[in-house]
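Sample pair:
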Amino acid sequence: MQTTLAPEYQGSADGAEAEAILRKCVHCGFCTATCPTYQLLGDELDGPRGRIYLIKQVLEGTEPTRKTQLHLDRCLTCRNCETTCPSGVQYGALVDIGRRVVDAKVERPAGERAARTALKEGLTSPLFAPAMKLGQWFRPFVPTALKAKLPPKAPASAHRWPTRSHPRKVLLLLGCVQPAMAPNINSATARVLDAAGLQTLVADDAGCCGAIRDHLGDHDGGLADMRRNIDAWWPLVEGLTGQGKVEAIVMNASGCGVTIKEYARHLKHDPAYAERATKISALTKDLSELLPDLVPRLKPRLALPRSAGERGGSASSTPAGRMGRLAFHPPCTLQHGQQLRGGVEAGLRELGFDVTLTPTDSHLCCGSAGTYSVLQPELAYQLRDRKLAALAPVGAQVIVSANVGCIQHLQSGTATPVKHWVEVLDEALD
């Protein structure tokens, strides 16, 4: 796609990156066929190709409008279009640039500005956890719409962390909302890794991966979050703490994982952090990427019957078999952002679990998309209900996923338990 940048963007980092991405686009439209918002709204400007044209026009000097902003806001940034694109267009990076450029020129209404500020400051604040606890105490009395955002209080077992030491060590990012909303995901991760002979370490000063601020238009704040995490992790990465070097930085929230794997891109123009960001990105692994190493270590423990009376039983008598059928919802940040597909299902099946994808629409977004379900609730809940309808024919006892946002969003629309896959694995080990 031929592009002639307006003078104000020529020579800028965003302008150069956007122009390189735009030139790869051949406007074939394959992306439109797999775009969730285009499927719902049927508007070319609510699909990737239309949004690319809008961004191109703005970068070439066309003055953006509130309508331009709305079309970019309605993008989930699910990056399904990147998986579909035959030309390798990095749409996720382009839409981030487009939003920054448009937001700098189009002032948002006061209500939107207030909501975005509340989200980026509230979700990343130390006060989020006590606020969540307070909400859980009053959960029976709050409106239904708010109750969907308040998971029930976690049991004490959700905070049980292993205490053994192992020569092999990994770092785990606890996340900003996950410790308060779903603490069992982190502790279950540590227990499963402990069972496989890996010790899980946490850097106390690490916090939000940077995605929340960056996606809400606070680019500088997002970069500050990224730098803080690199500083917090660096002593453990370099083995400067006396605990030995970590072999990986493990992510059990795919939304955080895709962001941290792109630290190198975000900080490539920062001379103080570019090199370290590249190393951090290279060390970062989604938890599912460890499964080929974990499976042979965990398989004997899962295959053993729990009592003498069960010896010689069928697969259904094993801990994994008794979990029932699992339906796996692969988050967009896993299958499209990180381009990781099939690893969770393959690992769980090898461990004896009955796990399957929905026969239709497994590639489509559930509508969570970080803060999207708060800012665009109408579209988000349509996509949630569509996803749950697609999952229903599987007849699963449990729906499993790999990102806390997807888990909470799907759970708000179904009575079927929705969990992280590592929680189910942890239960089978117990």
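Strands lie at 168-172, 198-201, 249-251, 284-286, 325-328, 354-357, 398-401, 418-420.
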